[in-house]
Hints:
Oligomer: single chain
Number of helices: 11
Structural class: alpha/beta
Number of domains: 3
Mean pLDDT: 76
Largest sheet: 7 strands, mixed
Helix content: 25-40%
Radius of gyration: 59 Å
Shape: elongated
Amino acid sequence: MPRVTITIVWLLPVLIALAGVIALAHAWLMGGPELCITFTTGEGLQVGKTRLRYRSVEIGQLETLRISKDRSHVTAVVRLQADASRLSACSTRFWVVKPRIEGTHVAALGTLVSGPYIAAEMGHATKTCRNFRGMDTPPVIASAQNGTRFELHTASLGSLEMGSPVYFRRVQVGRVLGYALQKNGEDVSVDVFVNAPYDRYVTASSKWWRASGFDVRLNGSGLRIDTQSIAAIWNGGVQFESPTDSPNHAIASEGQSFALVDSQTDATAASKEQAAQVLMRFNASLRGLAVGAPVDFRGVEIGEVIGIHTDDEMTHGAFDMIATVNLYPIRLGRSYRNALGEGNNAAGRELLSMMIARGLRGQLRMGNALTGQRYIALDFFPQAPAVRFDMAHQPVELPTVPNTIEELQDQLSSTIARLDRVPFDQIGQNLAVSLDSTSTLFSKVSDEIVPQAQSTLQSAEQAFKAARATLQQDSPLQSDVHLALAQLKRTLASIDALGDYLEQHPESLVLGKTSPPASQRSSLTSDNPAPQK
């Protein structure tokens, strides 16, 4: 019988095969269940390299990747470790982790080095499954997260997407889980999740609006810009608020539906109590007054314009413009609110009648000179003419007064019309003729009269000089005047003497002068010498 010799060359393959069998047996004994996870695409998945992780701990590996028969998806066969068999629960969720942009940051940057991997999140179910449908995006909230889900209805999705934040008083309290188009195609339903304990602030009367980007409003109150956080501007978002004055403070239940509006202004308007609808008639253009324009009472916004139209019937040969207004009595105070109610009760109409009698009127005013937008002001005008208030009219029609600027414009228009009737052309022609005549007269004065006047002035100047020389103290005229005055004095003295003589001898006028005696003649001669002839 031949002797068989076993060499080391034959032992080496046997040992390798034995080690493989032992490894396979160990893997079979230590390995967990095999799971089939369906994904829309196999992007980033590699057989033998892609790992399955739970809370960043490796618990399995991708063994096989195959395409479905209809080529609509791929199936990843993953082998779990034995100690991770609980992840085969039917509520477990799977998704592929790879770099993506979330709001204002980039998530899963580490996968740029290590490569994508399959992440798992274990649910609360106890039943196990082998086939799972993987998620295309990571779940917005964890399964263990406490909170409440709500459904919002809106006409358009806008900039919302999965993961968009939910805010309460500008604090992020939840996220958008998803959205779907309704079967009727008229609106979109948005699922949101509010984390506990913030979900208790959601009540049956809560109002929801978009908190995305910029809210720019240019109206009669001016320019208003409302901005949100960078995350909301980049990724969209929604915000809610629960009115404190609402009678319904009950906490909203799971899955309760709410309306989602575009802005906080719309949400606030929707939360107002029943408005008192009134009409205001204007006999002027309402250009610049738009639907939504405020109604102001001495600085307090108490209503808004909800409609503008023309009157069907012409009064006084012109079309009247009618503005339909919603007034909210709550903003006037508790007493006005209790009295006015919805504006339909007798007490409210009586109060309005009394206020109108005191001069309550509506007036169209300029709200923004830059844009030309207007608003309606309610105020008291004691000098306004009395009007008849029909309390039975439905809806109530409040009287109005014209704007001061419009009155001034009417007066200016009337003045301009009167000025247009003035014959400025004829006046201008007459003025031109008068100016020509005046120019001719001035030319004659300059050419004829002025030289003659200059000659006359020179002659007058020479005459004045001669008169001045004549009136000087040492001039011959002065001497002759003095001599004449002396002679005049002597003549007056003789006349006085003659008068005295006639008074003493009046008969001398008839008989003539008699010679006096010698004695008197000598005395007369010595005392009063006869004047020289």
